[in-house]
Amino acid sequence: MNIEMIEAAATRLEGHARKTPLLSSPFLDEIAGRRLFVKPECLQHTGSFKFRGGWAALSAMDAETRAKGVLAFSSGNHAQGVAYAAKRHGAPAVIIMPADAPQLKIDNTRALGAEVVLYDRQNESREEIGDRLQAERGLTLVKPYDEPEVIAGQGTCGLEIAVQAAELGITEAEVVVCCGGGGLTSGIALALEKHAASLKVRPAEPEGFDDVKRSLESGRIEKNAAMGGNICDAILTPAAGDITFPIMKRLCGPGIAVSEDECLRAMALAFLRLKLVVEPGGAAALAAALFHGKELQSDTVITTISGGNVDPEMFTRALQAYGT
């Protein structure tokens, strides 16, 4: 995994992925106590950064392999990113999703033409289901984060941040990234290492599912005890990847853990001040920047909003609690 793969993915994504802007609000600056810029990947195709990795992975396959179809595991955002990339390439897609994933994400994945296979994440193994489907149908697995071409696609977000930061005169900053398995975090970190070395990446995770934070502290991959039970479904993963963790260990600063209430409040503020619709997991980095300022060192912070695929009920919950 290297910067050349990210730059190659950027070439293949040209004209297909949206270049999302860097947004700001004086109201958010005041809460954060510093300059705060937001990279809204909730405006990306399929409502999350995952389209970047899905397109990068499928566009790197040879035509014969792609025509047989692809397989993905996902609670929703990777599912939709891969499904849409497969649809635009004319390739079949089978997505294995937890039965407790938000209904909107399940419905959207099906609407994008993918076959959805639901499983019980507490009692069934998605890997065993996937192994069976691969053997039966000759599908190619597109992993959600521990896959070089997927990381390369996510890293294109970091290339954009480097260019946009330079245009805004930002010479030093912390870049807080919503982190699950580390695909987006490690990809952005690799991109910035070459193109904006003074921008330091910080992972943000939900409390109780902060395996990357703990892994960075211990120096080895730590696992989460549970696989569900938090509203930040988009970034709940068992552990960092074997590819992503060494990159994060080398390039990232300490992780930050945020509460569910902080994510809900960040969702409401993103809507009120930036007019963005954000899902709980997609708000983790913004919550870290707004409410964990003592853990940050820079006068300027850039955060990712990784996704906006939120059910109306959850979005209403955020606005009712914090939208005034």
Computed Rg:
18 Å
Measured as a percent range, the helix fraction is: 40-55%
How many extended strands?
A: 10
Strand-residue fraction?
5-15%
User: How are the strands ordered across the major sheet?
Assistant: 1-2-10-7-8-9
Helix-strand makeup class: alpha/beta
Sum up the overall morphology in one term: globular
Low-confidence stretches: none
List the helices and strands and how they pair.
Layout: H1 3-13, E1 23-24, H2 26-32, E2 35-40, H3 50-60, H4 63-68, E3 70-73, H5 77-89, E4 93-98, H6 103-111, E5 115-119, H7 126-137, E6 140-141, H8 148-167, E7 173-178, H9 183-195, E8 199-206, H10 211-218, H11 244-251, E9 256-258, H12 260-274, H13 284-291, E10 300-305, H14 312-322
Parallel strand pairs: 2-10, 3-4, 3-6, 4-5, 7-8, 7-10, 8-9
Antiparallel strand pairs: 1-2
Question: What can you tell me about this protein's structure?
Answer:
The chain is of the alpha/beta class. It is 47% helix and 15% strand. The chain contains 14 helices and ten strands. Helix 9 links the parallel strand 7 and strand 8 (199-206). Helix 9 (183-195) packs across helix 11. The termini are far apart.
